[in-house]
Amino acid sequence: MIIEAYDDTGDFGVRVAGVPHLGLLGVSFGDVVALNTPAAQGREGTYNWARTLWHELAHTMAIGTSAFHVPRWFTEGLAVYEERRAHPAWDRHLDLRLLQAFEQDRLLPLAEIDRGFTRPAFPGQVLLSYYHASCVIQHLVDDHGWEAITQTLQALAAGQAIDRALETATGHAMSALDAAFRATLRQEQARLAPVLEGLPDPFRDEPPSLPEADEAVDNAWLRALREGHRALRQQDYTTAEARFEAALALYPGYVDPGNAYEGLAAVYRARRQPDRLIDVLARFLDATPFGTEAARELATLYQDRGDRHAAAACLERSLHTDPYDLDTRRRLADLYEALGDTRRAVRERRAVLALDPVDRAAAYYDLARSLRLDRQPEAARRAVLQALEIAPGFREAQRLLLDLVEQRP
Fold first, then answer.
1. Which of 167, 142, 132, 138 minimizes the C-alpha distance to 152?
2. d(Cα 380, Cα 374) in Å, to the nearest integer?
3. Least CB-packed of 150, 255, 290, 316 within 10 Å?
4. How far apart are CA 363 and CA 17, in angstroms?
5. Helix or strand or coil: residue 3?
6. CB distance 150 to 140 below 8 Å
7. Which CATH architecture has domain 208-288?
8. Which helix (H) or strand (E) holds 4?
9. What CA–CA distance (Å, rounded) separates 395 from 398?
C-alpha cells in the first residue's frame, strides 16, 4: 500500500483529479491513498491529518472487500463511522444539523442518498450527506451487528446491487431499514428538543455561528451559553461557571468557537484552579478532533503534576493537527527519555532535525544522546560527528564522541 502526502493543495488536486485546488482533503484509489498535510491547509489547527488518513484507509478496506463495487454513500458513511469508532474525539458533531435537516424534510431516502454527494440541492448538503450516511451505518451496526457491514460488502463483491446486498445482510428491505433509521431520529429529536428549538437554519448560504444567533431565539442551551459568556466578561465567575455547566449538561457536543468548555477554562485560569482546569481541558479534548493549544496547555499542567505519561499523550494528540511545532517535538523527546521510551525519543529527535532547527548542531547532539540511550552506538557516533562537523568546538559533543569511541569493542 502507498500513502502520498502533499504539502500543497494545488499539487494534491492535480495528482488526484488533474485540477488544482479541489477542496478535498484526501482520496483513496484502493491501494494508493493521497492526502493533504497540515502545511497544505495553512496550519491553523482546524485540520486533523490523522483523522483524514484513517478515513481514507477505511475507504481502501471497503473498496477492496467489495471488489470496487461499494456505492459512494456506503463507503463514505463507513469511513466517517470508523473515524469516531477509532477515536470518539474525531466525531464530526453534526447531529444537530442532521436533526434540523430531518425536521425540514431535507434528508434524502436511503435509495437516493448518493444524490447528496454528487448533485447537492442546497448549501451544506454534501457535508450533511457524509454524516447522514455515517449515522445509517451506525444504525445498521446497532440493530444488526458489525457482521451486517461485512456481509453487505461481501454481497456487493459477489455482484449484488446495494438494495439486495443490504437485504441479504439484514433480512430487511432498504425502505424498511430507512424507516427504522428515521424512527431513531424522531427519538433523538424529542431528546434534544430544548437544544434544537429555534436554532438558525444551517443550510443558508452564510449561516451565523450558534453563539451569534438571534438573541430573540428562546433556546435554553443558547441562553445558557450567552449568559455564561456575559458573566465571564463581567468577571462574575460563579455565574459563568454555573451557566457554562448548564450548557454542557444540555449539549456537550458543541466544540466550535464560543463553546462552553473554553468558557469554563477561562474561569478556572482566572481563579487559578489547576485541577478544575485540567478536568475541563480533558473533557474538551474528549469532544473535539482539534484543540491543539488545549492539548499543549494540558500537557504542561500534567507535567507540573509530575504525570509524564499523561503529558506525553497530550503532546502526541497535538501532533494530529500540528506536527511541525519544534517545542512540542523537543518536549516529547525529553518526556520519552525520562519515561525510558528511548525508541520514541529517537523518533522525536529525528523529527526535530527534519523541521530544520536553527541550531542543527545541538539537534544532532540530542539525537546522538537518545541513540546512545537506545543502544545504537554506531548511529549515535554518526550523529555526534554530524554535530561536530557543524560546530567543531562543541565541548559536550566532543565528550560524547570520546565516550562512544571508548565503548567500541
1. 167
2. 9
3. 150
4. 40
5. strand
6. no
7. Alpha Horseshoe (1.25)
8. strand 2-6
9. 5
Which distant-in-sequence residues (6+ apart) come within 8 Å of 113 by Cβ? 73, 129, 132, 133, 136
14 CA to centre of own chain? 25
Q: What are the residue boundaries of the structural domains of the chain, listed by start?
A: 1-42, 43-196, 208-288, 307-409
Distance CA 78, CA 355 (A): 35
**Separation between Cα atoms, residue 399 and residue 361, nearest integer Å:** 14
Which amino acid makes up residue 267? V
Closest Cα partner for 62 from 28, 100, 92, 11?
28
Phi-psi region of 376 (alpha: psi -120 to 50; beta: other; left: phi over 0): beta
pTM score of the predicted model? 0.93
Query: Could you give the dihedral angle defined by the CA atoms of residues 197, 202, 206 and 208, in that order, rounded to the nearest 10 degrees?
Result: 40
**Beta carbons of 58 and 256 less than 8 angstroms apart:** no
DSSP state at residue 207: P
307-409 and 208-288 share a CATH fold: yes
196, 200, 201, 204: CA torsion to nearest 10: -160
Q: Does domain 307-409 have CATH number 1.20.1440.230?
A: no
What is d(CA 115, CA 400) in angstroms, rounded to the nearest whole number? 64
3-state secondary structure of 248: helix
User: Mapping DSSP to helix (H, G, I), strand (E, B) and coil, where does residue 34 land?
Assistant: strand
CA 70 centroid distance within chain = 25
